[in-house]
Amino acid sequence: MSSRATISGLAIAVLFMGILLSLLVTHERRPFYLVRERYGKWAQSFDEVERRFRKGISLTQPLVQLYNQGRWTVLGEMPYPVVLPGRDGYLFYASEEAKDGPSMTDWRGQALPDQAEITRWSEALIARDHRLAELGIPYLVAMAPNKQTAMPQWLPRWVQHQEGRHRADVLLPTVADRLRTPPLDLRPLLRAESDAGRETFFRTDSHWNLEGAALAAEAITRRMAALDRRVPVLDTRGWERVSSSYQGDILKLGHLRVDRSETVLQPVPPRTLPGRTPDGRPILAGGVDRVFYLPVELWQAQDEGIKTLVLTNPEGIDGTLLVFHDSFGTGVMPFLGQIYRTTIACWSPWSQKVVEQTRPAMVLQLTVERYLHYIRRSGEKPETHP
Amino acid sequence: MVFSSLIFLCLFLPVVLGAYFLLPRFARNWWLLIASLLFYAWGEGWYVLVMVWTFAFNWGMALAIERFQARSRTILALAIAANLALLVFWKYTNFLVDGALNPLLALVGAPALHIDHIHLPIGISFFVFQAISYVIDVHRKDVPASRSLVGFGMYKALFPQLIAGPIVRYKDVAHEIYERRETIEMFREGVRRFCAGLAKKVIIADVMAGFADRIFGLPASELSTGVAWIGVVCYALQIYFDFSGYSDMAIGIGRMFGFHFRENFNHPYVAQSVGDFWRRWHMSLSTWFRDYLYFPLGGSRCAPWKVARNLFVVFVLCGLWHGASWVFLAWGLWHGVFLALEHFGMHTLIDRLWRPLRHGYCLLAVLGGWVLFRVETLDQARTWFTAMAGFGARTPDWDGLITRELLIIGALGLIFAFGWGRSLAGAARAAIDRRAAWLGDVLEAAAIAACLVWCIAALTANAYTPFIYFRF
pLDDT by residue (tens digit) across B424-447? Predict the structure, then answer.
């Protein structure tokens, strides 16, 4: 063998081993910790070792960014597997369970709940309602739509016509006449508005925009007014609309640096509400206003794990509104915070303890459709999310 | 553990390779055996014992065949029966009970038999076939029985080829098990081959899989003729690049350790008949069936009806080898029918055709077979064939299906599937070498580095991508 072949062979061998080992060398923890953790906890399975390995790779973010950016630039594709690119720049978060790609199982009616799930879900809500009834507190359950449910016309055509019965279609009727107040299904309202040409969801985000959130808040306050006569029904039609640029969570999923923000018109509440964490720390100078995601991010960063936001409105009616919500709740808080003097928003599972500590005038539970998949975690708490 | 996982690429492989070359020669087989058992146990846990039992049992049976010559046929029969029993139990029990026995019981009004789902140890079809070939070769005196349990165990468990082939025969690597030479040139060749396989899997197969899954998930009412054809082409590219990519990686890793495994693919989609296709597709399996079943049954040198019988037996079993279900059986039969037709005269007709037409005929037959291979039920297969025949849904919706990614990666897949990619790369390399050989080496190293980094980035982003052939 020639010396050139030997040298180039050696160079390739070194390069190969070097690239493979680079992830090990840059591992955030020493490799030993893959099998025995810092505090002496041994890995229970090979899966656990693998998880620890993946978690500790410090080059993860640059690698993911390299891959996603490359695919985006060369192929024009959203690389994140659960993202389904829709029409005219709309991106859809396919499903909570779409690990193998944008399966859209709930949209297609392929993920309907079984009897055990129906029972677990409905009994959890009914039990909560009974406990609140004993305390004399009204309880309202509201269901926010998935983006594809509200705006199906922006789905790619190949999947647009495949709509089946959704999990919410099966679950909501099971509690309709068993709760003191029937659940508020926000899906038809948002869909009708979308059909009428209003953009109620962000294009690059899985959540409703403030226009959609305002519509939802109006509907929620209408239902709240029936439970508490003091509650004024919100009407945001006359509110100022400001234009802002926004990059949504779906775009951020893939660590993409893309010039693809969207311009959205957002209604601005007349009052900026001072917000704080339960222990009194401010969440943002100026409170919760038009840039509603910013305070949430700061609030999470400051108060990780608790995820409770307290809004005060000196001009609100007496009492406290307690809201258990998921990520869709952040959008409605600037509006719902206008009603009561205090609004406590818990981005967390249901907590009877919080209810008893705060003794609210009303409890609202706001859940998005896609979280209905979590009922499947049998035996786990909470039975529903939130 | 799969080759396209980060834990394999960035922990297992470099550590095993590094330790292997640091160890003295006598300890290397021990090290490979231990590493291979760990590799298998990583995904399969205690089922590694099934594999350990297979190699220990067959090692002993081969020695017995050699020692007790007078009864070697009986011992061989016993060894084959035990291996097949193992395969039937783990792979086919559920199918035999649910798919065959219970319908019969229902016919006579007897209560159905219920058995729990039996876990299929990964790669069992591969290592059982490997074991059968070993005892037969020893019986035929093609190769002496291995005296070393460690050496034989290492060969049987050798992780590059353990769970998805190629089916490496003992006689092909016997001398390398005990006396192999690892050279820098082989290592380089192994790296090149491994990276090519990884790229096939990550860059082409996984992307095509997304499109194929999407289309095969469409309801019948949405399946137009054009979409059905796109779906089956995507699947054809997916399965080829997935499996041949795995084989390339296996051959490449083997080469790094000093082994020469048989080639498993030779551009099957350029075949001009179904017979030609099977000489190019999964060659280690087709030659296995040829040498250990088709020829012993009489092969092609017997009465025409026997030839037909032999072909059907081989392809029915080939179909069932891929999976315990009616669709795999139908897939085997499909190929068996084409091969029988070609054998009994159709080949003379095909040979007279214009070359592109011969090629078109073969692709049609193979693509039709892939429909059977991919669908879950025969009813679904009927829907697909109806759509492909032009009776699909009337309103094809291309929006969102035909993307730039499909066009680019699909074109790349076709270029490499038909062998043009390799020809172009070879010609470019030759042209560069003529001008400045060092430049060719630099470009090769750069291409390997870029490919590896890109694939690691893709795997990091996508986390987990199982290989199709693991379920066989």
Answer: 888 888 888 888 878 888 888 898
How far is A300 from A303, CA to CA, in rounded Å? 5
Nearest chain A residue to B11 by CA: give it.
Answer: A24
**Chain B contact for A60 (CB, 8 A cutoff):** yes
Q: B147 and B79, same structural domain? A: yes
Q: Which of A1, A80, A159 sits opposite B400 (nearest CB)?
A: A159
Closest-CA distance of chain B to residue A357, Å: 43
Mutation target vs B (from A4, A14, A19, A161; most B CBs, 10 A cutoff): A19
SS3 A332: helix
| Boundary (domain end) residue, out of B391, B425, B440 | B391
Residue B322 is among the residues annotated as catalytic for this protein: yes
| A188 reaches B (C-beta below 8 A) | no
Tens-place pLDDT, residues B97-151: 888 888 888 888 888 888 888 888 888 888 899 999 999 999 999 999 999 999 9
Which sign does the torsion angle of CA B379, B385, B390, B394 carry? positive
Count up the domains in chain B and report the number.
Answer: 2
Contact between A67 and B213 using a beta-carbon 8 Å cutoff: no
Q: Which of residues 269-328 of A touch B (CB under 8 A)?
A: none
**Which residues of chain B make contact with A17, given a CB cutoff of 8 A?**
14, 17-18
Please report where in the chains the tokens 């893309």 appear, as a residue: A258
For residue B174, is it within any domain? yes
CB pairs under 8 A between A and B: 158
Tell me which residue in A10, A64, A87 faces B457 most closely, judged by beta carbons: A64
- Domain assignment present for residue B415? The answer is no
Would you tell me how many other CB atoms lie within 10 Å of the CB of residue B212?
23
Alpha carbon A227 to chain centroid, angstroms = 27
* Closest residue by Cα to residue B157 from B124, B182, B120, B194: B124
For residues B151 and B13, state if they share a domain. yes
- Cβ distance B461 to A76 less than 8 Å, yes or no, reads no
- How far is it, in rounded angstroms, from Cα A39 to Cα A22? 26
CA distance B200 to B195: 9
Q: Is B134 strand, coil or helix? A: helix
Chain B, 206-235: which have a CB under 8 Å from a chain A CB? 210, 213-214, 217-219, 222, 227
Give dist(CA B278, CA B262) in Å, integer: 15
Q: With 70 as the cut, is the pLDDT of residue B187 above it? A: yes
For residue A382, say if its preceding peptide bond is cis, omega within 30 degrees of 0. yes
Does A21 contact chain B (CB < 8 Å)? Answer: yes
Same domain for B278 and B373, yes or no, is yes
Residues in chain A with pLDDT < 70?
Answer: 1, 25-43, 76-82, 95-103, 253-261, 265, 270-307, 376-386
Q: Is residue B53 a contact partner of residue B89, using CB atoms and an 8 Å limit?
A: no
- Given B322, B335, B347, B359, which residue is catalytic? B322
Residues B282, B190: one domain? yes
> Which has the higher per-residue pLDDT, B304 or A167?
A167
Look over chain B and give the mean of its residue pLDDT values, rounded to a whole number.
88
**Which pLDDT tens digit goes with each residue over B169-181?**
998 888 999 888 8
Nearest CA in chain B to A51: B7
B370 lies in the same domain as B321: yes
Same domain, B199 and B165: no
Task: Indicate if B201 and B341 belong to the same structural domain.
Answer: yes
Cis peptide before A182 (omega within 30 of 0): no
Residues B114, B214 within the same domain: no
Picking from B391, B409, B429, the residue at the C-terminal end of a domain is B391
Share of chain B above pLDDT 90, in %: 47
- Chain B positions touching A24 (Cβ under 8 A) are 10-11, 14
Q: Chain A closest CA to B379's CA: distance in Å?
A: 19
pLDDT, position A1 = 56
- Going from N- to C-terminal start, the domains of chain A cover 1-58, 92-376
Instruction: Tell me whether B199 touches chain A (CB under 8 Å).
Output: no
Q: Which domain holds residue B277?
A: 186-391
Interface predicted TM-score of the whole assembly (ipTM), two decimals: 0.77
